[in-house]
From TrEMBL:
<dbReference type="InterPro" id="IPR050736">
    <property type="entry name" value="Sensor_HK_Regulatory"/>
</dbReference>
<dbReference type="InterPro" id="IPR004358">
    <property type="entry name" value="Sig_transdc_His_kin-like_C"/>
</dbReference>
<keyword id="KW-0808">Transferase</keyword>
<keyword id="KW-0418">Kinase</keyword>
<keyword id="KW-0597">Phosphoprotein</keyword>
<protein>
    <recommendedName>
        <fullName>histidine kinase</fullName>
        <ecNumber>2.7.13.3</ecNumber>
    </recommendedName>
</protein>
<dbReference type="Pfam" id="PF00512">
    <property type="entry name" value="HisKA"/>
</dbReference>
<dbReference type="InterPro" id="IPR003661">
    <property type="entry name" value="HisK_dim/P_dom"/>
</dbReference>
<dbReference type="InterPro" id="IPR036890">
    <property type="entry name" value="HATPase_C_sf"/>
</dbReference>
<keyword id="KW-0902">Two-component regulatory system</keyword>
<dbReference type="InterPro" id="IPR003594">
    <property type="entry name" value="HATPase_dom"/>
</dbReference>
<dbReference type="GO" id="GO:0016301">
    <property type="term" value="F:kinase activity"/>
</dbReference>
<feature type="domain" description="Histidine kinase">
    <location>
        <begin position="161"/>
        <end position="370"/>
    </location>
</feature>
<dbReference type="Pfam" id="PF02518">
    <property type="entry name" value="HATPase_c"/>
</dbReference>
<dbReference type="InterPro" id="IPR005467">
    <property type="entry name" value="His_kinase_dom"/>
</dbReference>
<dbReference type="InterPro" id="IPR036097">
    <property type="entry name" value="HisK_dim/P_sf"/>
</dbReference>
């Protein structure tokens, strides 16, 4: 039996297992109808069979673009989810085909080629569709500026700041797609896909931070869904992605590698990434340090950079919503304001210390045993 015949015979089984894994690993899909989840994937498998039998990749390209179009309509769905979908599909295909003797290396390589090509085409299509976010971002920023009744001289600068910040990750996404089009080797492809994941998460985080901080009443707290998290493992995973793009060292120091804390993992990641982005932006291309410690049932995470110190007069305002330090840099305090909201939602706080000798240190503190509170 050929590999294409095996896929055709077990097509329904591949789809069934793929959807089961999808629901386990990508909770966002649970919000959508099962038919919408499956969408063009059966046709993609038929296109894969055609590729194996005729080496014609036109249908693979078409179906991966259709897949991206479908997924662009999903709420809270990003490029990283699409990439994960294809990797899960690859896993289930090989689960079936590896059970047959005499599978030719050429066929296995064609399947790998089909997956890589689909990711590239879907990424390009998804990016083009989501570019509309950049256009819509100005409209959203204008509405928020009106709602906050900003003065005319600040209104346009505020809007430009928001759209500029959103434009950066979109430009990086386009650059990563261009690298993929050059046909890098497997190791380089993995690194580029990680960078794509980071860029999409940064764009999502910017939008979410902006909306969350502007909508939450100062007297209220962000809603929190707590779970037990291995802190060192989580920090290492996040920092590993930054190391791909940041040319200087990022050092992690943690006294207890097994430290666990109860927190909302989604909010924590966004807060930590805001602190990392802030450190990289203002770090003057010097090494960045991340410290993690626990004392008196309190988790403390510090992110330290060696850039320009923060004036003492600015310290008490730096976490205020839409506050901008008058040093010529862009930004309206949205990221740091959100970090403050996350810390308060967990019953904690965030502080900053800044001097010439030790650099600028942001300290995020929350109770470790907050799960029972």
């Amino acid at each position: 039996m050929t590999i294409s015949e095996a896929i055709r015979r077990h097509k329904d089984l591949i789809l069934k297992r793929w959807k089961e894994r999808l629901y386990e690993e990508i909770p966002e899909v649970k919000r959508h109808d099962k038919a919408a989840i499956e969408n063009s994937v059966p046709d993609w498998l038929e296109a894969l069979i055609d590729l194996l039998e005729s080496t014609d990749n036109k249908e693979i390209v078409f179906n991966s673009q259709e897949h991206a179009l479908d997924r662009s309509r999903f709420q809270i769905y990003s490029l990283k989810h699409i990439i994960r979908e294809y990797n899960l599909l690859k896993h289930e295909i090989f689960n079936v085909t590896d059970g047959y003797d005499g599978v030719h290396p050429r066929d296995r390589n064609l399947i790998m080629y089909a997956i890589d090509l689909s990711i590239e085409e879907a990424a390009e299509a998804f990016y083009r569709i989501k570019q509309g976010v950049q256009v819509n971002a100005r409209s959203v920023a204008e509405q928020k500026a009106d709602a906050m009744q900003l003065q005319d001289d600040n209104r346009e600068q505020f809007i430009r700041s928001i759209t500029h910040d959103l434009n950066n990750p979109l430009i990086n996404i386009k650059g990563c797609i261009s690298l993929l089009e050059e046909g890098p080797d497997v190791n380089e492809t993995a690194k580029i896909l990680k960078m794509l994941k980071t860029c999409t998460e940064q764009a999502e985080s910017l939008i979410k931070n902006f909306l969350d901080v502007s909508e939450v009443n100062p007297t209220e707290k962000l809603p929190v869904r707590k779970e037990l998290v291995k802190i060192m493992e989580e920090i290492e995973n996040e920092v590993a992605v930054y190391k791909l793009a940041y040319r200087n060292r990022i050092d992690i120091q943690c006294a207890n590698s097994d430290l666990e804390a109860a927190l909302d993992i989604g909010l924590f990641r966004r807060a930590f990434n805001n602190l990392m982005n802030n450190a990289i932006k203002h770090g003057a291309n010097a090494p960045i340090e991340v410290h993690c410690s626990a004392k008196n049932d309190e988790l403390a995470i510090s992110v330290i950079n060696q850039g320009r110190t923060i004036p003492a007069a600015e310290m008490e305002h730096i976490f205020n919503r839409y506050y901008k330090i008058e040093d010529g840099s862009r930004g309206w305090g949205i990221g740091l304001a959100f970090v403050k909201e996350v810390a308060h939602a967990h019953g904690g706080e965030v502080k900053v210390k800044s001097n010439e000798e030790e650099g600028t240190r942001f300290i995020f503190r929350i109770p470790i045993n907050y799960l029972n509170n």
